[in-house]
Amino acid sequence: MTHVVSESCIRCKYTDCVDVCPVDCFREGPNMLVIDPDECIDCAVCIPECPVNAIYAEEDLPADQQAFTDLNAKLAKLPTWKSITKRKPPLPDADDWKDKSDKLNELVR
C-alpha cells in the first residue's frame, strides 16, 4: 500500500508534509505535490501535516478521488516532477483555493 495526494492539493501546494517524510517520496509539480508509490513506505506521518487534508492511505481514498492513485504514480515518474525534501511557501493564492473542490481541470502537468 501507499499514500496518495488527492485533488485538495491542486492550486495550494502546501509543503508541510515533505518535512516529516522519512524517505523523501514527494514530487513537486507546478501547482501540486504527488507521492511516488515506489518510494512511499506507508508510514502515514504526512497525513496529519497536510493543512487541506489532501493525503490519504490508498485504501482510505474517497471513491471520487480514486483516479489520483494512478495520477500520483504517473506524475511522480515525469522528469519535470522533482523530489522535494524541504518545506516551501504555498502558492500565493493557496488560501483562496484550499476549500474549493472539482479542481482537477486546474492541474498543471
Give a short overview.
By secondary structure, this protein is of the alpha+beta class. It contains three helices and five strands, in the order βαβββαβα. The chain has a single domain (3-83), classed as Alpha-Beta Plaits (2-Layer Sandwich).
Give the key terms.
13% strand, 5 strands, Alpha-Beta Plaits, 109 residues, 17% helix, globular, alpha+beta, two-stranded antiparallel sheet, 3 helices, single chain
Model description:
With 109 residues, the protein is α+β, with helices and mostly antiparallel strands. It has a single domain (3-83), classed as Alpha-Beta Plaits, CATH 3.30.70.20. The protein has helices at 16-20, 67-76, 94-97; strands spanning 3-5, 26-28, 33-35, 55-57, 82-83. The strands form two sheets. It has a three-stranded antiparallel beta sheet with strand order 3-2-5, covered by helices on one side. Strands 1-4 form a two-stranded antiparallel ribbon.
Task: Give me the secondary-structure topology.
Blueprint: E1 3-5, H1 16-20, E2 26-28, E3 33-35, E4 55-57, H2 67-76, E5 82-83, H3 94-97
Antiparallel strand pairs: 1-4, 2-3, 2-5
End-to-end distance: 24 Å
Percentage of residues in DSSP E strands: 5-15%
Question: What's the total count of β strands?
Answer: 5
**CATH domain class name:** Alpha Beta
Model regions low in confidence, pLDDT < 50 over at least 5 residues: none
Order of strands across the widest beta sheet? 3-2-5
Count of distinct structural domains: 1
Structure class:
alpha+beta
CATH level-3 fold name: Alpha-Beta Plaits
